[in-house]
Amino acid sequence: LVYRGYNIHDLAQNASFEETCYLLLHGALPTRDQLEWFERDLRFARAIPPTVIDIIDHVKAAHPMDILRTAVSATVALDESSHEATGEVALPVARRLIAQVATIVATMHRLRAGLDPVPPRHDLTHAANFLYMMFGTEPSPEHAKIIDLDLVLHAEHSSNASTFAARVAAGTAADIGSAIVAAIATLKGPLHGGAAEAVQKTVEEIGDPERAVAYIKERIEAGEKVMGFGHRVYKTDDPRAKELRGVARDLGHKMGNDRWFQILQEIERAMEPYRPKGIYPNVDFYAGAVYSLLGIPEEQFIPMFAVGRMPGWA
Ligand code: ACO
Predict the structure, then answer these.
(1) Of 293, 14, 20, 296, nearest to 154 (Cα)?
(2) Which residue, by CA, sits nearest to atom 15 of ligand 1?
(3) How far is the CA of 149 from the centre of ligand 1 (A)?
(4) 175 within 8 A of 91, measured Cβ to Cβ
(5) Which pTM was predicted?
(6) 190 has a pLDDT exceeding 90
(7) C-alpha–C-alpha distance, residues 261 and 268, integer Å
């Protein structure tokens, strides 16, 4: 997996989400000055209009991806400067939407939980501010780093289903906001964005590492697909799963929950016979456990994916 010529493992280890966004939007990594300007621009674009907060509140009982799609649609409808934003003209809109989608997701989480939205701060990174808006307290640097890594890993994946949908919309010369809305609609599907949630549900249903192998065998014999496995492109290890595997293990251990990782390992073991078919864990396999350990509810996993994929779509 390569973003603009850089191997994903290099970016995962050395680049922040903001640097990755710049790379994807501009085609090259930023200089120090360019990064400073870019980060500042994103930080001051975080707030969403009060009307959008009201709209989220009105539709908060819907599926989180329906709320996200509606809120992004409203955000661009209210932003006149975005209505004809295509090509180069779309860059400032892209930056605003990258910043605002994180705020929309955190706002929907708060309103669904019966809590007041937490306004964004300007002094935190994109990842740290996202956790701050979700939970109302400043996250530890370690947790912010994990979300930063997760966002980098989700930022781009060439013409995957949702990006393909965005490109169809953009290819008709529709504005960038319309293209992003098409992408969000497509990411909603359980075979694309929904797998992390399904994996975490499976882990919780299995409950005990010793039950994992028999459980998976039963699912396969019933003709079901095992969520978090298989990929249209990778017929080998998904490099993003490799990065998240260690995070899930270490975070679980630190938080006194080794069980979820052990269950995931047992599921991997049960799936070994299918490797010759090219079925390996994908990005979603470990992401669900990482999100759950950080306190992000399952229903927010697909919106989280959208927060990360924004620069790729843009
Ligand atoms: N579990 C069990 N068997 C599988 C799985 C799986 N997860 N994935 C593929 N297979 C089997 C298929 O049944 C098929 O078997 P057959 O040849 O006997 O008919 C074979 O492997 C090839 O499967 P396809 O569906 O043709 O693979 P394709 O590359 O088209 O599909 C996809 C990729 C949609 C991701 C699929 O693997 C899947 O549904 N996985 C589960 C959902 C999932 O984890 N999605 C997240 C993907 S990553 C992302 O979008 C970010």
Answers:
(1) 20
(2) 277
(3) 25
(4) no
(5) 0.95
(6) no
(7) 10
